[in-house]
Specification:
The protein is an all-alpha fold. The chain contains 14 helices and no strands.
Length: about 300
């Protein structure tokens, strides 16, 4: 059952990557994060009667988990606003490595032969992502500006350098988001041993709203009224509550394992790549699909 719940989480998570990209086409990162977490809190409010009774120590650790996600989402949303959604989907698979290491060294989970092979395959898929043998040479030449007039070539080169620098920055932000999300997954497993899903979901969402409200005030971010007409923000909020609920329930089951759950979560890459092809008309889909197939093979081997 906990594997099925985790699979549901992964598929909803993949759909949310589409919602994020669409929401950020109309509003800023701060606007989307603040308002969608606020709407999520409203959706979670009916759970309040079941959310009472935590100790001061438990409130503290829920606040820590919320802060970890607060930073992770800022990094992740800034990355997805600039990078292709299919690329984000594959990069997100790197959290398998981070979460598995945390599961082994913090929770004492063991790496079996199947898990080890699965991790190797996942790592290979991520490494292959960096090397694209399908990219046409003429496209590379055009990108480099070869054959252009001297002034135009210089301009192209400057733009190319800036583009590479920016892309590297946003990829690093995506990886930071993955690391912090892996830490959050570890905290979920620990916290669900001593509280119910309603307690964790309501208070974690409340802390998130507080953090983003303070962030918006400190950065003097303007919240445009158009955000309330952005349907993708509402879909993001509904997706958050649904996926977190099934994940918290799965984490609350004693037999669930962080390492296997993290592998199953990566089913989200399928949704992200399909969306990249048919929704956002992105390129290099064949290369990303091959990377994803290698990673998915690792997931299957890891959970056998």
């Amino acid at each position: 059952m906990w594997m099925l719940l985790t699979l549901c989480y992964g598929l909803i998570k993949g759909a949310r990557e589409i919602f994020k990209k669409k929401a950020l086409e109309k509003n800023t990162v701060t606007e989307v994060l603040l308002i969608y977490t606020f709407i999520s809190l409203i959706i979670a409010t009916p759970q309040l009667p079941n959310a009472m009774g935590l100790t001061g120590r438990q409130y503290f650790w829920v606040a820590v988990k919320a802060f970890v996600i607060f930073v992770a989402w800022i990094a992740g949303f800034k990355a997805i606003k600039q990078l292709p959604v299919s690329l984000i989907g594959v990069l997100d698979l790197s959290r398998v490595l981070f979460a598995s290491l945390l599961g082994v060294f913090v929770l004492g989970e063991t790496i079996t032969l199947n898990k080890g092979i699965g991790l190797v395959l996942v790592s290979a898929g991520l490494l292959f992502l960096k090397f694209n043998p399908f990219k046409k040479k003429d496209a590379e030449i055009a990108e480099a500006g070869i054959g252009l007039p001297e002034e135009e070539e210089s301009c192209k080169e400057k733009k190319g350098i800036l583009s590479v620098q920016n892309k590297t920055l946003f990829i690093l932000l995506a990886f930071l988001s993955c690391i912090l999300n892996a830490v959050s997954g570890l905290l979920d497993k620990i916290l669900m041993k001593e509280m119910n899903s309603s307690q964790l979901q309501f208070w974690y969402t409340l802390f998130m709203v507080i953090y983003y409200a303070v962030y918006a005030l400190v950065t003097r971010a303007k919240i445009d009224r158009s955000i309330w007409k952005n349907i993708w923000v509402y879909l993001l909020a509904a997706g958050l509550i649904a996926m977190d609920k099934v994940l918290f329930i799965a984490n609350g089951m004693p037999e669930s394992q962080v390492t296997i759950m993290t592998l199953i979560k990566q089913s989200s890459v399928i949704v992200a790549i399909v969306a990249g092809k048919f929704v956002f008309k992105e390129k290099d889909i064949l290369h990303k699909c091959i990377c994803a197939v290698i990673v998915i093979a690792g997931i299957i081997v890891g959970i056998l």
